[in-house]
Design a protein that fits this description.
The structure holds two protein chains of two kinds. By secondary structure, chain A is mostly helical. Chain A has one domain: Fumarate reductase/succinate dehydrogenase, transmembrane subunit (3 helical TM bundles of succinate and fumarate reductases), CATH 1.20.1300.10. Chain A is built from four helices and no strands. By secondary structure, chain B is an all-alpha fold. Chain B has one domain: 3 helical TM bundles of succinate and fumarate reductases. Helices cover about 85% and strands about 0% of the residues of chain B. In chain B, α1 packs across α3. Chains A and B meet through α1, α2, α3 and α4 of A and α1, α2, α3 and α4 of B.
C-alpha cells in the first residue's frame, strides 16, 4: 500500500504514523520498567522521577507525548478513511491531526514547567 | 496483511483510540505543578477502576504494537517468515508481562 503511494497526499501521514509507532514500541517496555520501580516503594520511584527533571529527559518526555498524540490522531484518520467511508478530498483532516498534536504538545510544556 | 491480524489490529485501534485519549488527559492533568512518587501512588493504589482500564490498555497494546511492527518490518526489510512471527510473539509477551507488572506496581 505505502510503496505505491509516494505521490499521494497521505504518504507523509503514513510515514509519520509508522515512525511514531516505532518510537512508541521502543519506549513502552522502558516505560513499564520505570513504573515497576514503584514495587520497591515510593522512594525508588522518586529516585527515577528525579531523572525526569533534567532538561534533556524533559525534552525526550515531550517527544514521546507528542509521538503518542501523532500516532493516535493519524490512527483515527486511518479508521475514518477505512470504516466511515471518509474520502480525503481536502487536507482538513490532516490539519485537524496536526492541530490536535500541537495542542497536546503545548499543554504538556505549559503544565510541565 | 493476514485478515485475522488486520481485524485484530483495527479492533485494538478502536480500543486504543479511547484509551490513549484518556491516558493523554491523565498525563496532562497529573503533571501540573510537578509530582512526587508518594503523591502519585497515594492516588493510584487500590484504584480498581483505573487498574481495570490500564489492564485493558496493556492487552490492546500487546496485540496492536507487534502487528504494526510486523507490517513495517515486512515492508522495509527482507525479514519475514516464522522467525519474524516468533520474535513478534515474544515482543507481545514481553509487553504483556512488563505491562501487567507495571499496572500491579502502580495500582494494586
Amino acid at each position: 500500500m505505502m510503496r505505491a503511494s509516494h505521490t499521494q497526499r497521505g504518504f507523509i501521514a503514513a510515514i509519520l504514523h509508522r515512525l511514531s509507532g516505532i518510537a512508541l514500541a521502543i519506549f513502552l517496555p522502558l516505560h513499564f520498567l520505570a513504573l515497576a520501580t514503584a514495587l520497591n516503594g515510593a522512594s525508588a520511584l522518586d529516585a527515577f522521577l528525579e531523572l525526569t527533571r533534567q532538561p534533556l529527559v524533559k525534552l525526550a518526555e515531550w517527544g514521546i507525548v507528542v509521538a503518542l498524540a501523532v500516532h493516535m490522531t493519524l490512527g483515527l484518520r486511518v479508521l475514518a478513511i477505512e470504516f466511515f467511508d471518509f474520502r480525503e478530498k481536502t487536507l482538513a483532516m490532516l490539519s485537524a491531526c496536526i492541530a490536535a498534536v500541537f495542542a497536546v504538545g503545548l499543554v504538556f510544556i505549559l503544565n510541565a514547567g | 496483511m493476514n485478515p485475522a491480524l488486520f481485524v485484530a489490529q483495527r479492533l485494538t485501534a478502536f480500543v486504543l483510540a479511547l484509551a490513549v485519549a484518556v491516558h493523554l488527559g491523565t498525563i496532562l492533568y497529573a503533571i501540573r505543578g510537578g509530582l512526587t512518587a508518594g503523591e502519585i501512588l497515594a492516588r493510584t493504589h487500590g484504584n480498581a477502576a483505573f487498574m481495570l482500564f490500564y489492564s485493558v490498555f496493556v492487552i490492546a497494546v500487546a496485540i496492536h504494537a507487534p502487528i504494526g511492527l510486523r507490517s513495517i518490518i515486512r515492508e522495509w526489510t527482507p525479514w519475514r517468515g516464522r522467525s519474524l512471527d516468533a520474535a513478534l510473539v515474544l515482543f507481545s509477551l514481553l509487553l504483556l508481562a512488563l505491562g501487567f507488572r507495571a499496572v500491579y506496581a502502580v495500582y494494586a
